[in-house]
Amino acid sequence: MKKSALQQARATYQPKLPKALKGAVKAQFGAPTNSVANQEEIKALFPNTYGLPELTFVEAEASEGKPLNVGVILSGGQAPGGHNVICGLFDGLKAINKDSRLYGFLMGPGGFVDHKYMELTADIIDEYRNTGGFDIIGSGRTKLETQEQFDKGLEILKQLGITALVIIGGDDSNTNAAILGEYYKAIGAGVQVIGCPKTIDGDLKNEFIETSFGFDTATKVYSEVIGNIQRDCNSAKKYWHFVKLMGRSASHIALECALQVQPNVCIISEEVEAKNQTLQDIVNYIADVVAARAEAGLNFGTVLIPEGLIEFIPAMKALIAELNDLLAHNGAEFAAVEGQAAQRQWIIDHLSPANAEIYAALPHGVARQLSLDRDPHGNVQVSLIETEKLLGEMVAKRLKDLKAEGKYSGKFSTQYHFFGYEGRCADPSNFDADYCYALGFNAAMLINSGVTGYMSSVRNLVGGTDQWIAGGIPITMMMNMERRHGEMKPVIQKALVDLNGNPFKQFAANRDLWAKETCYVYPGPIQYFGPSEVCDQCTATLRFEHC
Ligand code: FBP
Questions:
Q1: Most buried among 80, 210, 382, 531, by the most CB within 10 A?
Q2: Model confidence over 522-544: pLDDT tens digits?
Q3: 0.85 surpassed by pTM
Q4: Would the CB of 224 count as within 6 Å of ligand 1?
């Protein structure tokens, strides 16, 4: 495989480990835990793995452990640093005993169920150190949920002598890791299950998981390109750029990018929901900013839009919830309806009158996206909805009305962008390279300490790696009950943007100034070599949350 000059130099980078993981470790158990909500229901569903204690690793006397055979799965969307989690896991297992072996299941949970795997040996691992992507074994979105899948997977684990499985995934995949861990414990399968917190969306976090991996690198990539666009925008002074940013539900990515680049407008979905805003309210807000800038002769600007916005507009949320239930229970009948117009009418006829009215008023393209297939976890595929164009077109219409009323006399030309896939496979920043390696190494230590149903946790991340704390937390601790596919299910609670948190407060305190004036910041590309203040910066979100 041909490697770029940067890749060759980057391959020699040795990720830093927390002090506690540099030598032999032992587990120190803390207090028993409880789920974040619905304790009784979750306890009943996880009788073997509920209420386990938190765990921290501390230094111990060196001693050789038993060789371990471990399987690893990459699950869901790519996130920078996934390869380093696997490299850290490999090195951790070899540090425990040089005869340990690591097997990767191919193309996500599907490879586990279908017995498609490869052994990850040292020469393969060395090819992937500090690289972006998930291509070492591939990823997939197959949902691990049925007993049949669990039993089928167990066959291959037994065949390969695997006694522990590491699932690297987001909230849905780690929910499934907890269910699998509980099942294997209940049947005495002798297989531990450990999760690792992955997702560029940044919505898998809590007191013990301060950030999911990949968020740092992805937001740095998006901030670089938004910065470049802002410089272009400020040079030509003739376009309004509408930029949609990935983040299926939460707006962490949009907020982080806003803190990095200081755009003229950034919409935060969680605020839209809290203020019970309509689509028209959002359009009016953007149009007012455009009009005010035009008055000052500034017919250009940038607008950041989180991908999940549609689902947070309360009226749309109610519509999507009803659509989810309708399609979950009548999917076959809907699939049998032929032609887009007839399908649209079928939906209108089967929705409650209030939701039918909203659905019928939506632009046809957007309405159709809402009725298309969900992903295997039941989510609307929001990355396919062109919210940036929807808003741009509605703002143009609003400005036309304002012009007719004599309240606006500027020019409004738009450019549209969607940044998501561009950032998911970037070479991990120093932060993600170190964090991911530590998460993987730490997962090996969790396996060696005998626990199951835990998530690898490396925290105190704002300090240098020497101050990072390594350990594990029971996955059940992060769970609550939510409605999915028309049924109440135990799931890890998503961390949305906290409107009382410091990152949002920083943004809210500055946004009026950023709207009126041109305060753009141009972060430039991720730097892998150079002064620490340039190369080792963590996200503004982490800094504001923890300083
Ligand atoms: P994960 O939650 O699996 O990490 O994926 C996040 C994400 O990148 C979202 O931001 C985006 O909506 C979605 O994946 C896109 O999914 P796909 O890769 O299947 O197109």
A1: 80
A2: 999 999 999 999 999 999 999 99
A3: yes
A4: no
